[in-house]
Design goal:
155 residues, mainly beta, Jelly Rolls, four-stranded antiparallel beta sheet, 1 helix, 11 strands, elongated
């Protein structure tokens, strides 16, 4: 009985080994007598939190955030969100996000915490410095934001 189970286990492992997909493969070009590795692709994200942003009487409070190192050579943003944690007693505010390429997007926000989605940055490179700003629409707005940038990449 033990021999049959061992044989069945070995057969299952061999089938699994030969049936598993491979993420990169070699591609031969006989005309040029060279071998190249096929491109690898994937998705990733980074998330950064601002300092506490205090905006008084319409003045702007900003925080600069670095993406850190991003995966891949060819990168493309798929979505950007900012989760805003608003202190009680805050006025309405304008949330502004600037990408490393200089694109600026704004949202008018309420007096409670929430998550805001930006599509203006899609297909841009996420690598570099991002700026998140708030401007009070009343007396004072106190907000801490968490920027999350999702992107796809390839090598």
């Amino acid at each position: 009985m033990k021999r049959k189970l061992s044989l069945l286990l070995v057969a299952t492992l061999l089938c699994t080994l030969f049936a598993m997909p491979v993420s990169a493969r070699e591609v031969s070009n006989p005309a040029r007598q060279e071998t190249a590795v096929a491109a690898t692709a994937g998705t990733n994200y980074f998330s950064r939190t601002t300092t506490k942003l205090n905006s008084l009487n319409g003045l702007t409070a900003s925080s600069t955030l670095s993406s850190g190192s991003c995966s891949g050579n060819s990168r493309s943003i798929t979505s950007v969100t900012v989760n805003c944690r608003v202190s009680s007693g805050s006025s309405r505010f304008t949330l502004t996000v600037e990408s490393p390429s200089g694109t600026i997007a704004e949202k008018l926000c309420g007096t409670s915490s929430g998550t805001y989605t930006f599509t203006e940055f899609n297909n841009q490179d996420p690598n570099g410095k991002w700026t998140v700003s708030v401007s009070s629409q009343g007396t004072v707005s106190t907000v801490t934001g968490t920027l999350k940038v999702n992107y796809s990449y390839s090598y």
